[in-house]
Amino acid sequence: MSLFARKTSEASTHRVHIHFAQPMTERLRKDHEAGLIDTLLPACNSSGSITNAKSTLDAAEEPISSDIELEVTTSDPKKVFAKLLSSLTESGLGRGSWLVIDDQRTDVGDSEYVLLRTRLADESDAHLEPTVRALQHALGDGSIGWHEDVYYRHDGPVFVYNGNSAQAIIHTLEAELVKHPLLSKAEIVPVSPQE
User: Fold this and answer.
1) Mean pLDDT score, 2-15
2) What is the pLDDT of residue 73?
3) 3-state secondary structure of 107
4) Distance between CA 195 and CA 174 in Å, rounded?
5) How far apart are CA 64 and CA 44, in angstroms?
6) Domains with residue ranges and CATH for the chain
7) Is the pTM of this model over 0.90?
8) pLDDT > 90 in the chain, percent
9) Under 8 Å CB-to-CB from 72, ≥6 apart: which residues?
10) What residues does 72 pair with on adjacent strands?
11) Are 194 and 67 in contact (CB under 8 A)?
12) From its phi and psi, is residue 61 left (phi > 0), alpha (psi between -120 and 50) or beta?
């Protein structure tokens, strides 16, 4: 081997646990899982596999948090950590979320979440679509908050919004809801972080 040959670090396996302290449907959690395994890790010349993943529901069967655990094989764990941290923060991770790599925990995320319980069990999605667009537009198309996810309960769809300030989202949604008789029974609820 040449004296000037580049030394490469040997790949090693690392345990990673991501806790999402926010409402997240199983579908959205699986999208995150696929993004980690299929996109983020290969971009870091690394690979991995999911070892455990779950969504936690409250007594009313509404999602309150999610966890993804994986094993990552990489020769550059610092690069993977930096990329994970950046990616998770950019995606609007909720207050109270954290990332653990090899038993070292880092708190991440400061987004605040708000639920809009529509109470529209009997309405079709087609009736809701213009209202959803109007609500997103009222939220400054992302400058105040954005529509993160939707899940369904017995009394209709629940929209999940996130942004820098739950109060700003609530204030904006309250002002906009009065323009939409379809949502006259809707309830707006701020989300508390779930450790």
Assistant:
1) 67
2) 96
3) strand
4) 28
5) 31
6) 12-108 (3.30.70.360), 112-190 (3.30.70.60)
7) no
8) 63
9) 13, 14, 15, 16, 41, 46, 47, 48, 80
10) 14, 48
11) no
12) left
